[in-house]
Design brief:
Blueprint: H1 4-84, H2 88-170, H3 174-187, E1 193-197, E2 200-201, H4 210-218, E3 223-224, E4 231-233
Helix pairs in contact: 1-2
The structure holds zinc ion.
């Protein structure tokens, strides 16, 4: 037979566990939020990295471009000088310099073409990566706002769950509540009240003593498992 106060304590336990579950969910929220925010930061950093790689290619291209312009103006300068020189060997020397500059220009132009291709490729893959990342960031922001929504909801639910729990305690005698609170402190993990199945506590699954079994069957007092200290009852 189950002690009437234990019946009431079982209701207290249900309300208590529901209240605890909401509290635990509330406690997890800052961590979950931080995790999502960290992911967003990582995504943004990877965009920045891709962008800076693209930029360094652009810088390289601009550098080649100004080298080519320099060589072109050298060539023009040599050609002007050629019109002014009197000696053949000076003329030939300038011809040689012009050829050298033109060779350099061809080499630089080849490099520039290669880098332009690689910029085009990098742009395409950057745009693709960026749109994937933007999509993921949008989803993560959506998760953040859902989390904020849940947080608001939880705060309200917790208030009412606590009220319901407190109210359920009011229906129980002080002595029984004391045992419940002590059991809760000792076992730490729910359930705090367990049935006895045959002769085993359903909380710790260990065999209870004959004394405990006998008292549980009589239902005359609130007794606890001699193995795990949970409140036990026998129906
Ligand atoms: Zn036990």
């Amino acid at each position: 037979m189950i002690h009437p106060q234990i019946e009431k304590l079982i209701i207290v336990q249900v309300k208590d566990l529901f209240f605890q579950k909401l509290q635990q969910e509330l406690e997890r929220i800052p961590n979950e939020r931080a995790k999502i925010e960290r992911l967003i930061e990582e995504e943004k950093a990877s965009i920045e990295l891709a962008k800076s790689e693209l930029n360094s290619k652009e810088v390289e291209r601009n550098d080649l471009d100004s080298q080519i312009k320099g060589k072109e103006s050298d060539t023009a300068k040599f050609k002007t000088q050629q019109l002014e020189v009197k000696k053949n060997e000076e003329y030939r020397a300038l011809t040689h310099q012009i050829e050298q500059a033109q060779n350099d220009i061809s080499e630089l132009e080849e490099k520039e073409i290669a880098i332009m291709y690689s910029i085009d490729e990098a742009k395409v893959s950057f745009e693709k990566a960026k749109s994937d990342i933007d999509e993921r960031i949008a989803r993560q922001n959506e998760q953040l706002s859902q989390l904020e929504e849940r947080l608001k909801q939880l705060k309200e639910e917790i208030g009412s769950a606590e009220g319901v729990y407190t109210e359920s305690r009011e229906a129980v005698e002080a002595e029984a509540l004391e045992i419940y609170d002590r059991t809760k402190a000792q076992t730490k993990r729910p359930p705090y009240i367990a049935s006895i199945e045959v002769q085993n506590c359903a909380g710790c699954h260990l065999r209870v003593s004959n004394d405990v079994l006998g008292l549980a069957i009589s239902g005359e007092e609130i007794i606890t498992c001699d193995q795990c200290a949970r409140i036990v009852y026998k129906t």
